[in-house]
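dumping this here so i dont lose it
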């Protein structure tokens, strides 16, 4: 059997079978090696199982890792006025260390938020004023691009390991590249 001969149903059945096999193996190791009764229930093992089993089903569009590299997404938060319970859930989760990347249900295609990014982006030249040590990196980025500095804007890109400068096209907020400098 080759990948080309798989239809959607066969691929789904193989995926389901592998998911069940992996889940059963993890549960067995958890119950036999790591958390023998009563530790499993006491340490919240049931909740972990729900995440393990349910996580694969609930992530929709963003559940698979793209083969061509990371997929750029935006975040569309729930409306604070229309859905205060959901808004508060995000705020309190953030305070507890569970940040927005752990909520893929709020992911949207980057194109859906590009206009918002464009409004919040600052001219790339302003980065030098905020971070004087960034002048050489900004100039090198602009020189490599072959475009004028005014064609670019920037926004911070923050992750678990820190922040970098995301350089975007000033007209449409398309991501052009990154400068390894914390812009804030």
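and the seq i came up w/
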């Amino acid at each position: 059997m080759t990948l080309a001969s798989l239809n959607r149903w066969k691929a789904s059945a193989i995926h389901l079978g592998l998911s069940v096999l992996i889940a059963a193996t993890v549960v067995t190791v958890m119950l036999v090696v790591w958390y023998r009764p009563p530790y499993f229930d006491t340490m919240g093992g049931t909740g972990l199982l729900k995440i393990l089993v349910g996580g694969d089903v609930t992530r929709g569009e963003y559940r698979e890792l793209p083969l061509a590299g990371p997929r750029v997404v935006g975040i569309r938060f729930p409306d604070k006025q229309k859905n205060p319970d959901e808004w508060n859930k995000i705020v309190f989760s953030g305070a507890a260390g569970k940040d927005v990347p752990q909520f893929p249900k709020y992911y949207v295609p980057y194109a859906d938020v590009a206009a918002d990014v464009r409004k919040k982006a600052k001219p790339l030249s302003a980065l030098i004023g905020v971070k004087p040590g960034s002048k050489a990196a900004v100039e090198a980025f602009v020189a490599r691009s072959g475009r004028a500095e005014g064609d670019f804007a920037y926004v911070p890109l923050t992750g678990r390991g820190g922040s970098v400068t995301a350089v975007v096209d000033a007209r449409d907020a398309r991501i052009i590249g990154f400068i390894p400098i914390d812009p804030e």
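Strands lie at 73-75, 107-109, 122-123, 152-159, 162-169, 175-179.
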